[in-house]
Amino acid sequence: MLLPDHEIRALCAEHALIHPFNPERLNPASYDVALGSNIMIEVAETPELIRHNIATHTKEDPYWLSPGEFILAETEEIFNLPDDPAIAAQFVLKSSRARSGIQHMLAGFCDPGWHGSRLTLELKNVRQKHKVALWPGLLIGQMVFMPLSDNPDRSYRELGHYNRHETVMPSWETLKPSASVTA
What we know:
By secondary structure, the chain is mainly beta. The chain has a single domain, classed as Deoxyuridine 5'-Triphosphate Nucleotidohydrolase, Chain A, CATH 2.70.40. It is built from 4 helices and 11 strands; from the N terminus they run H-E-E-E-E-E-E-H-E-E-E-E-E-H-H. The strands form 2 sheets. Strands 1, 2, 3, 5, 6, 7, 8, 9 and 11 form a 9-stranded antiparallel beta sheet that branches. Strands 4-10 form a two-stranded antiparallel ribbon. The longest helix is centred in the N-terminal third of the chain and has 11 residues, at about 5-15. Mean pLDDT is about 90; it is low at about 175-183.
């Protein structure tokens, strides 16, 4: 079951579910989210993705995502999913973005207790011959919110790797110190 607009609005007022909250982006069963200013791009010199700020790009002067190019991006919004009532969320790419050739890697599930974070998006231009335009503020997708039938025994607030991330983040596995190897 998905939460309807009035329940999303109430959770925003009570739990700061979405910050900033813009009532014009509220749909009957979802909330439109916008692309933020920070992305991580692939460069030839290193296997790690490199941080890149696209804040100066606009609809008239966009960042061009090349054919086949993969990036990590962030939402403009910060999310705070409550534990009580337990609310989960799922990112869904806007159909207009998919029709332009952008693909999302379907890794946008958010557990109850995920908080203080922008959602990191995994985006790819699946077009073969043409670039796709991106800029901060572009409506990139929708968040749908789902109530759990009961509060979980343990919250993502305790278990999660991606809490309090106010910018785009790589895999937590690349952030943790390497395990020492013994011979």
